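Private note to self, pasted from the team thread so I don't lose it. Backbone tokens:
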């Protein structure tokens, strides 16, 4: 991460996840005591928040194959369903569309090929 933009995106990711967690906890505190209606509203809050978070992440981040270096994008569903980790700047377990190998792809900020 040479310039400030990728770091800003990682900070944004942290901020959005933090806001989501706060909304879940606060929503649970106020909605869950309302019995079934509250539980349904809380589940809707959780699902809608998760969809927005995953769509944003899929739109803003790309992936670099650890084997051939190919940079590619994935769908929000692929972003949601794939295994991921946070070591070495973040990775996702994906199949590279170029070399067809299953790899731990490095998460990179979309629009930047090298940083
Ligand atoms: Zn590859």
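Design output:
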């Amino acid at each position: 991460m040479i310039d400030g933009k990728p770091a800003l995106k990682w900070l944004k990711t942290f901020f959005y996840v933090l806001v989501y967690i706060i909304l879940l906890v606060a929503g649970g505190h106020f909605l869950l005591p309302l019995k079934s209606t509250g539980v349904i509203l809380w589940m809707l809050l959780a699902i809608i928040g998760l969809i927005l978070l995953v769509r944003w992440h899929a739109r803003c981040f790309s992936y670099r194959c650890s084997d051939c270096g190919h940079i590619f994008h994935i769908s929000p569903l692929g972003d949601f369903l794939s295994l991921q980790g946070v070591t070495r700047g973040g990775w996702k377990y994906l199949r590279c569309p170029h070399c067809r190998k299953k790899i731990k792809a490095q998460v990179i900020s979309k629009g930047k090929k090298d940083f």
